[in-house]
Design brief:
Blueprint lengths: L8 H5 L13 E2 L5 E2 L15 H5 L17 H7 L16 H13 L11 H14 L4 H27 L21 H18 L1 H23 L13 H9 L2 H17 L5 H14 L4 H10 L1 H19 L36 H11 L4 H18 L8 H4 L1 H11 L1 H15 L2 H10 L5 H17 L3 H14 L14 H23 L20 H5 L4 H8 L4 H17 L4 H12 L3 H14 L6 H15 L4 H19 L6 H12 L2 H4 L8 H13 L9 H22 L5 H13 L1 H16 L1 H4 L10 H6 L5 H11 L17 E2 L3 E2 L10 H19 L18 H15 L20 H13 L2 H10 L9 H17 L9 H16 L5 H4 L10 H17 L7 E4 L4 E4 L13 H10 L1 H4 L23
Antiparallel strand pairs: 1-2, 3-4, 5-6
């Protein structure tokens, strides 16, 4: 008997088969035996026991079979709708018997004719035939195709493992662009599946696209989760998303599923893509993060649609679940239990508890935020504005509009990426008062508990804000929470309810930040068994690191509540970012505070941080001084910083007045920064230098002696500051610099010598000489030299001619600077720019400072308030040595004994130079008087006294005037010289009084008297060994009576002869020049003129 060949069977199988008999509820297996209901095997070659009922279900709920007995599948085919379009005509309809054979073969996985198991390829093609011919079999066929795709993926990954295992890790070949997957036959079967489903989707997208998209997207999620981390070539989901995307798109099976879903979404994108987006969200919830590569690819392909539809679907689902739990079981029940089957069936079980989709929404938008952040931001702001514009503030309006604000808050809480995307424009969005009013009306419909929850979310969101939007958000909240001002325009006033809400929000934010900052180290038990966990970051405080200066400036404005909030925030920021922001904030407050009230903010900040931050003040000063020396801290702020530090140290030294909690430590911190503070005394800005001088004048020095380098730098800077203040402000402005130099001179003997030496050298320097009546810089010699443009050429020629000889004192190249041959004498000396009173005032200021530095703190005269200050001989000796080195350096170290008068002929040039220096610097005579007040210090100025005396002798010898009034300077210099030598005990009192009559003598007579002085000093040399210390007077003194002829002896004869010659005018002075015996009373006092 000829076997029947049903239509479609040969096309599907390619060989004749025997049509199996089919009885409802029974199946016929090979061998002719009948069994009960079929029990096919599970796996890719069989179907699950639930497939048969699914085969008999129509594809749409409204076309279910009527209850009763099914007389044949022909009735099913007649009642079920056939696919429309080309797919319906691809295969001719099968008869009932042929269709029954196909169903039996598909259910059992056994060839009805030959009786052997069907191959994966044949089994899949049998299912495709049923999919074309029997639409009710759609769910069963699609479920069977899951196994086909699963086997294809497994074979693909196995092939990649074989390729990767051919060599060591560093020699493995790169991933092939395409490896044939699934072995022979599965690749073409997968291609056929794609063709069939594509035809159905093109023919009837409304009916097929939702089902096929849900099937393909769910299958991709299951495959991604199943093989994640189980194969060598599949990277973990926490790794690179690009690697996952490259791997799965290189597999033919997963790439086909992706193409099918994209086709479904493209088909519905113009009408209603909610079904496809819902499937994407559901799968993302179940299989994240293994499913992220699918989301990334689809989102990049349809950014606009995915963003808008994902947000729309998420909002709808949020309304259903009420937002409870933040997307983790919003209905309040437990999450659904996962099925034991690797591939559960697609249709949802009625009554199953759904998982909220907000987590999936967050994941999808998080993937898209990097490339499509602008689109996401615009969509989120659009939803927000639409909810405010459409919301009436009355219960019963659109639930989705009422839930938009809580939904957006929940999104931002769950995704920092979304928060960062929208935070930049959030302030601009909320700035208009009308928006705040609408928001306040919109939130009136919520209960108190719901408002508190949203406020907590808002506090958390602000603490997680990052980037530039964080500081703008803080300013917006503070400005909104500030009470209204009387000058605020009526239209810009913020409602009181909004202001109170912002006030409460700021207070809760500060409390929340305080908990985060002080609890960020973890629990006490963390790190016992391993390294401690890293501190938890606070993005809001991280974003405020770069705005510490602005926060300090706002705090110092002292605006009611604002400065309290920002001051507290500065403290939290300092503790959080220690040790960087604490010193910076304290430095800003110290450098910007203008009043004691503002300065108290710095002390309060320090009091709050001193427990948490050790070494805060030293770090603050180091950072501030580093900014000063780098030029980043402007001079006004530098001066203010130094003045505030001076005020704090002064409060400490006043015995507790002022905020001494900070002042007690400022002195120690400042003393440690002396090397960095000393250069500030030379700052080009006067206010900075003056402030530094005031600070150093009262700050304590380090414990122990100062290092020589520190001491010398401080002395140099202090001396320079003294002369600069004297030039700019006069004697009243040198108090701080004088106090600093006095303290430095008392620090050590080396400091005393350095101060005295630099003061004397500085006073005689041409740059400062004009302060004390001397010739300043840019004298007449320089003016005459620059009068001719060829002066430099003459100097060059002169140097070229005389390079073979070295000019020395008294040599043939010595030049007396009287003028230039061919140009005449030097111009006369210019008049002094300062008045005589000012010169005297400046000179007294310098001498007062020198006296304080040279003074002694013990002795008989130390306790006498009205007695002359006792000077230290060693200090006066330092001044004397410095004078010699400054006036005549080549005579430094010369012998103290006086040579004969004829010896002066060999030192004419030196003597003239010494005389010229004394004439240029009247201060030298005052300094000699100072040295003479502490005998025997004047002995060390012997070379200067000898040179000056020789210069005066030469002048009086050459003078042809009848009286000395024609040479006023020489007369005054002669008188002062004799008086100084008498004060310094180089001359006895009888000879020391002869200067009283110089003004009434002729020049030759003055010369005779000065020659007698020279002779006395030659016989009785000015040696320190001739002085003895007298305890009752507390000073060294010289007893001339013990020296032979020490009272004057034969040297008084010339004086007496001059007195006798001018007895008519000098008779009254004769008693002043008598050598009185030691037991006799002293000489009479000088008569009054």
């Amino acid at each position: 008997m000829r076997k029947l060949r049903p239509r479609g069977w040969a096309e599907a199988r390619g060989r004749p088969v025997r049509p199996p008999r089919f009885i409802a509820g029974e199946t016929e297996v090979p061998g002719g035996k009948r069994k009960g209901r079929a029990e096919p095997r599970s796996g890719p070659r069989g179907t699950s026991p639930v497939l048969l009922p699914q085969l008999l279900l129509p594809p749409f709920p409204q076309q279910r079979l009527p209850p009763g007995r099914c007389r044949g599948l022909g009735m099913v085919w007649a009642q079920a709708p056939r696919p429309e379009g080309p797919a319906a005509g691809a295969v001719l309809p099968l008869g009932a018997q042929e269709l029954a054979q196909e169903i039996k073969a598909f259910l059992t996985g056994v060839d009805p004719v030959l009786g052997h198991q069907l191959s994966t390829r044949d089994h899949a093609r049998c299912g495709l035939l049923l999919l074309r011919s029997l639409p009710p079999a759609r769910a069963a066929v699609l479920d069977h195709l899951r196994g086909v795709f699963d086997e294809s993926v497994r074979t693909h990954l196995a092939t990649l493992d074989d390729v990767a295992s051919t060599g060591p890790q560093h020699l493995r070949p790169p991933l092939p662009s395409h490896v044939p997957s699934g072995g022979p036959g599965l690749e073409d079967v997968i291609q056929e599946v794609q063709q069939v489903l594509s035809e159905f989707i093109r023919a009837n997208p409304k009916a097929w696209a939702p089902v096929v998209s849900a099937w393909s997207i769910d299958l991709m999620g299951q495959l991604s989760s199943k093989y994640s981390g189980r194969h060598q070539r599949v990277p973990h989901a926490a790794g690179s998303l690009n690697e996952l995307l490259q791997l799965w798109m290189g597999c033919r099976a997963t790439r086909t599923l992706m193409d099918i879903y994209v086709q479904c979404l493209s088909a519905l994108i113009g009408s209603c893509p909610d079904a496809c987006v819902d499937a994407l969200l559901d799968t993302s919830v179940q299989h994240s993060p293994h499913f992220d590569w699918v989301v990334a690819h689809i989102g990049s392909s349809f950014p606009g649609t995915i963003i808008s539809r994902v947000l729309s679907c998420g909002l709808k689902d949020f309304c259903v679940h009420g937002g409870a739990g933040g997307g983790g079981g919003g209905a309040g029940g437990p999450p659904p239990t996962p099925s034991a089957d690797a591939f559960p069936s697609t249709p949802a079980i009625p009554g199953e508890k759904r998982v909220p989709k907000i987590a999936s929404v967050v994941g999808i938008l998080g993937h898209l935020a990097s490339r499509h952040g602008d689109s996401i931001r615009r969509e989120l702001l659009r939803m927000f504005h639409e909810s405010l514009a459409a919301g009436s503030g009355v219960r019963g309006s659109d639930p989705s509009l009422q839930a938009t604000v809580p939904f957006l808050l929940q999104l931002a809480v769950m995704s920092p990426a979304l928060l960062g995307t929208v935070s930049g424009e959030l302030v601009d969005c909320l700035k208009p008062p009308s928006v705040l009013s609408q928001l306040q009306q919109h939130l009136q419909v919520f209960s108190r508990e719901e408002l508190d929850n949203m406020l907590s979310l808002a506090v958390h969101l602000v603490s997680q804000a990052s980037g530039a939007g964080a500081y703008r958000l803080l300013q917006f909240l503070v400005d909104t929470a500030m009470p209204a001002s009387v000058i605020t325009p009526p239209g810009l006033a913020v409602p009181d309810a909004v202001r109170e809400a912002c006030d409460r929000l700021i207070q809760l934010l500060l409390l929340h930040l305080q908990k985060l900052v002080h609890n960020r180290g973890g629990s006490p038990g963390d790190g016992l068994l391993g390294p401690p966990p890293p501190p938890r970051p606070v993005p809001f405080l991280d974003a405020l690191r770069s705005h510490v200066g602005e926060l300090c400036g706002e705090t110092l404005r002292l605006e009611r509540k604002r400065f309290l909030w920002q001051h507290q925030l500065l403290g939290l920021l300092s503790v959080y970012t220690r040790p960087s922001c604490g010193p910076e904030a304290l430095g800003h407050l110290l450098s910007r505070a203008r009043t004691p009230e503002e300065l108290s903010l710095a002390t309060q900040l320090f009091a709050g941080l001193v427990v948490s931050l050790s070494g805060l003040l030293p770090l603050t000063l180091c950072s501030c001084l580093a900014r000063v020396h780098a030029g980043t801290l402007l001079p006004p702020f530098t001066a203010r910083l130094l003045r505030n530090l001076t005020l704090l140290v002064g409060w400490e030294q006043q015995g507790g007045e002022g905020p001494t909690a900070l002042g007690a430590r400022v002195g120690e911190a400042v003393s440690a920064q002396l090397p960095d503070l000393a250069p500030l005394l030379l700052h080009p800005e006067e206010e900075v230098a003056e402030a530094a001088s005031s600070l150093l004048a009262i700050c304590p020095f380090p414990q122990g002696a100062l290092l020589p380098a520190q001491l010398l730098s401080l002395v140099r800077a202090g001396v320079s500051r003294f002369f600069a203040s004297l030039r700019l402000h006069g004697p009243p402005g040198v108090s701080s610099a004088s106090q600093l130099l006095i303290r430095l001179s008392q620090a050590s003997s080396a400091g005393l010598k350095a101060v005295l030496q630099l003061l004397v050298e500085g006073a005689l320097h041409r740059g400062n000489a004009e302060l004390f009546g001397g010739e300043g810089e840019g004298g007449n010699e320089n003016a005459s030299a620059t009068a001719s443009g060829s002066a430099s050429a003459y100097l060059l020629e002169t140097n070229r001619r005389h390079t073979a000889a070295v000019p020395g004192p008294g040599g043939v190249w010595s030049v007396f600077h009287a003028g230039v041959i061919g140009r005449g004498l030097k111009p006369p000396r210019s008049a002094q720019s300062r008045s005589a009173q000012e010169v005297i005032y400046n000179t007294q200021s310098l001498l007062r400072l020198l006296v304080h530095c040279c003074g002694v703190s013990s002795g008989p005269a130390a306790g006498d308030r009205w007695a002359a200050p006792a000077l230290s001989p060693e200090a006066a000796k330092a001044v004397a040595v410095t004078l010699v080195e400054s006036v005549c350096p080549d005579a430094a170290g010369a012998e103290l004994t006086w040579p004969p008068e004829d010896h002066a002929r060999t030192t004419v040039e030196r003597d003239l130079r010494i005389g010229r220096r004394f004439r240029e610097h009247p201060l030298l005579f005052e300094l000699l008087k100072l040295v003479a007040a502490a005998p025997p210090a004047l002995c060390y100025c012997s070379v200067l006294l000898r040179g000056l005396l020789a210069a005066l002798l030469g002048h009086w010898e050459a003078s042809r005037h009848l009286d000395t009034s024609q040479s006023p300077w020489q007369l005054e210099a002669s008188c002062t010289l004799v008086a100084v030598m008498a004060e310094g005990s180089l001359l006895p009192p009888t000879l020391g009084n002869m200067h009283e009559v110089f003004g009434q003598l002729a020049p030759f007579e003055v010369r005779l008297l000065l020659l007698s002085v020279w002779g006395f000093l030659r016989e009785h040399g000015p040696l320190p060994q001739k002085f003895a210390f007298q305890p009752d007077r507390g000073r060294f003194a010289r007893d001339f009576s013990r020296e032979g002829g020490g009272a004057g002896g034969p040297h008084l004869a010339v004086l007496h002869s001059v007195l006798h010659r001018n007895i008519d005018r000098l008779g009254l002075f004769s008693g002043r020049f008598q050598a009185w015996p030691p037991s006799a009373p002293g000489p009479p006092q000088r008569p009054a003129p």
